[in-house]
Amino acid sequence: MTVGNMESAQLFDAGKKGRGLRATKDLKAGEVVFAEPSYSAVVFDSLASQVCHSCFRRQAKLHRCVQCKFAHYCDRTCQTACWDEHKRECGAIRKLNFFAPSENIRLAGRLLWRIHKDTGIVSDSQLVSVDQLEDHVADLSEDDVKNLHADVHAFQEYWSYGSKKHSADYISRIFGIIKCNGFTLSDQRGLQAVGVGLFPNLCLVNHDCWPNCTISLNHGNQSAVSSSLHSQRRIELRALGKIPEGEELTVSYVDFLNLSADRQKKLKERFYFDCTCEHCSQHIKDDLMKAAAEGEGSKPSADKVKDVVAFSKECLGKIENSRVEGDYQEVVKLCQECLGKQEHVLADTNLCRLRVLSIASEVFSYMKDFSEAAALVHKMVDGYKKLYHPNNAQLGMAIMRAGVTHWHGGQIETGHSMICKAYRILMVTHGPNHAMTRDLEVMRTQTEMELKMYLKDKEAYHNMREAVLH
Ligand SMILES: [Zn+2]
Ligand SMILES: [Zn+2]
Ligand SMILES: [Zn+2]
After folding, report:
1. Distance CA 367, CA 379 (A)
2. Ligand 2 centroid to residue 65 C-alpha, Å
3. What are the UniProt keywords, alphabetically (predicted)?
4. 207 partner at 20 to 30 Å CA-CA among 3, 226, 335, 470?
């Protein structure tokens, strides 16, 4: 294996987990351990005309590549920055009569064109060659193997455009590498998954359900007037807290808000390993995630809890269906019924309750009922705080949503304090230059001003709000 250099991390033998990365110096919360541009990345099929194929920002107005009519960009700068990545793809799509194959196949194409052009290693700081990453093709189920064959076939049609041929085995390996190492990229507001990319160094960071690092996507800056100030799209790995020199660096591949057995199941299915992290092996916080309500009065019986959990799961299915159909009145009705049944039976840290609270608060916000939404999202955040690591990015984003909801609901004191709290978390997880952190900074200033006004003269504040709203 080729070994390159990184300033704050190095490759080491992590025992049973295989290779891993460890800190080569003491790190503090929010410190960037390393940043890495994608080796290659593609926008999802469904968003191909809504997301820039260069910087992966979601934009209202994008310009189409006139040649293939498939790729879309913010502007010329983004298009020029991406031309090297898109050139061969553009030709291949034209040759297929303007038919762009699915994201998987496009990513394999971009990956192979890059391997041909630059070999598997593109910089001194890249620790491993892309084609040396794990593929787990041997572990695939029968159905997966069928899909893989179909992909390989489609790929061969697409790839026929003036390039050297590869064996089906080699192409299978490339698809395997994408399947178990592909990293999902989100838009600049962190709201939606918009694409998938390959980051070779990031693949060396092992999983832990309670990790010491977190990953964020920096969309880069193509808008600077001077092109020397342009920066590339890249992921950034940040320390969630103090990490002493020599400690292994870890990230979580799954959301912590699942019972340990469910996290283990997901990891096994998707990444083919058995998680033996401390939180899984000791089932840490599982009890909270399935807890019954406590409080005055009698504790609910085990049977009652079981019934309500079963009811909630069924209800969540119906809620999802109504949401897909856009029937928000029905979603509200179902949520209220479900939350009513859960009251005094499930704890506020119970996963079933948290899922309903999350959906219900979103829908009430959507319907502009901010005071109801605020009450629900507040409960949700209280539950999250007891479960998540204090610097978890999901927690930060949930507090951000709660802060905005309270603010819009006229609860300026709580709103401002939550926005400040979210800002502190996102400074650690996303850093000062991320679009979300910047949004929070603006909101922090705005709510601070409003809070001062409110504290000085509550009536005048409410009158001003009314005037703005109506
Ligand atoms: Zn762009
Ligand atoms: Zn094109
Ligand atoms: Zn685990």
Report:
1. 19
2. 5
3. Metal-binding, Methyltransferase, S-adenosyl-L-methionine, Transferase, Zinc, Zinc-finger
4. 3
Q: What is the pLDDT of residues 359-379, one digit of tens each?
A: 999 999 999 999 999 999 999
**pLDDT tens, residue by residue, 182-231:** 999 999 888 899 999 999 999 999 999 999 999 999 888 777 667 776 77
CB 173 within 8 A of CB 10: no
What does the alpha-carbon distance between residue 185 and residue 201 come to, in Å, rounded to a whole number?
Answer: 16
Ligand 2 center to residue 41 CA distance, Å? 15
Q: Is the pTM of this model over 0.70?
A: yes
Place of tokens 């090297």: 84
Which structural domains are found in the chain, ordered by start?
A: 38-236 (no CATH), 280-469 (1.25.40.10)
Alpha helices by DSSP H, listed for 273-369, are: 278-281, 286-289, 302-325, 328-342, 351-366
Size of the chain in residues: 470
Ligand 2 center to 147 CA (angstroms): 27
362: CB partners within 8 A, 6+ apart:
373
Helices (H), 9-135: 76-95, 103-118
- Supply 295's token pair: 């409080």
431 Cβ contact list (under 8 Å, min separation 6): 30, 32, 216, 218, 236, 238, 437
Query: Helix, strand, coil % (nearest 5) of the chain?
Result: 55, 15, 35
Could you read off the pLDDT of 72-120 as tens digits, one per residue? 999 998 999 899 999 999 999 999 999 999 999 999 999 998 888 877 6
DSSP 31-79: -EEEEEE-SEEEE-GGGTTTB-TTT--B-SS-EEPTTTS--EESSHHHH
Task: Tell me the two tokens of residue 218.
Answer: 């920096």
Cα dihedral angle (325, 329, 331, 334), rounded to 10 degrees?
-130
Q: Do residues 241 and 14 lie in contact, with contact meaning Cβ atoms separated by under 8 Å? A: no
Going from the Cα of 282 to the center of ligand 3, the distance in angstroms, rounded, reads: 9
Q: How far is the CA of 352 from the centre of ligand 3 (A)?
A: 20
Give me the phi and psi of 90, to 5 degrees please: -60, -45
Residue bearing tokens 């977190």 = 214
Cα(205)–Cα(201) distance, integer angstroms: 7
